[in-house]
From TrEMBL:
It comes from Neotoma lepida. It holds the Pfam family V-set. Its main location: membrane. This is Triggering receptor expressed on myeloid cells 2. Keywords: Cell membrane, Disulfide bond, Glycoprotein, Immunoglobulin domain, Lipid-binding, Membrane, Receptor, Secreted, Signal, Transmembrane, Transmembrane helix. GO terms for biological process: amyloid-beta clearance by cellular catabolic process; cell development; cell surface receptor signaling pathway; cellular response to amyloid-beta; cellular response to lipid; immune response; negative regulation of neuroinflammatory response; negative regulation of NLRP3 inflammasome complex assembly.
Length: 206
């Protein structure tokens, strides 16, 4: 973990849930799928655990793989990963990734530590003695399984806006077609031409 300077350390309790939030530039990573992977070694490959929905507009929907759930708020630029029912084997180094084809950009590295359920929260480990983690962001996150019940509002608004815009566009096209047919089917009314009726003249009545 010698390159863990930008690593966020999160600590959870066995049997509970741990929520991980990875932020990113929403414009730079626009239209990309996101993934959560586990790094097998310090310099080894990162084994993908779960990724967001294949349709980018549906990225706010939760995708699950076992006890791991991922969802992406594309407008806010936040990936939320929930590790449910934490076990000792869940501890390790993970990555939030942005996928582009066969390549992946690392958004954030997360070191997950799992504590025993009888361990005091005041005994949470903080990596003060290790130079590898100097300047690392350390958070104590022990969220319960009842959390994560709402969808990201910004993604829902984006989806609703796209649906409403599509319906408005279709309605406009149908109205234009109907209006065109109405014009083609209406009879043409010609004006009266009094010049052709020379046999009739107006007489002044006294």
């Amino acid at each position: 973990l010698s390159q863990a300077l930008n690593t966020t350390v999160l600590q959870g309790v066995t049997g509970q849930s741990l929520r991980v939030s990875c932020t990113y530039d929403s414009l730079k990573h626009w239209g990309r799928r996101k993934a959560w992977c586990r790094q097998l070694a310090e310099e080894g490959p990162c084994q993908r655990v779960v990724s967001t929905h294949s349709v980018w507009l549906l990225a706010f929907l939760r995708k699950r793989n076992g006890s791991t759930v991922i969802m992406d708020d594309t407008l806010a630029g936040t990936i939320t990963v929930t590790l449910r029912n934490l076990q000792a084997g869940d501890a390790g180094l993970y990555q939030c990734q942005s996928l582009r084809g066969q390549e992946a950009d690392v958004l954030q590295k997360v070191l997950v530590e799992v504590l025993a359920d009888d361990q005091d929260a005041g005994d949470l480990w903080v990596p003060e003695e290790s130079e590898s983690f100097e300047g690392a962001q350390v958070e104590h996150s022990t969220s319960s399984q009842s959390e994560e019940t709402s969808f990201p509002p910004t993604s829902i608004l984006l989806l609703l806006a796209c649906v409403l815009f599509s319906k408005l566009l279709i309605a406009s096209i149908l109205w234009a077609v109907a209006r065109g047919k109405q014009k083609l089917g209406s009879p043409v009314v010609s004006g009266l031409d009094c010049s052709h009726d020379a046999g009739h003249q107006l007489q002044i009545l006294t």
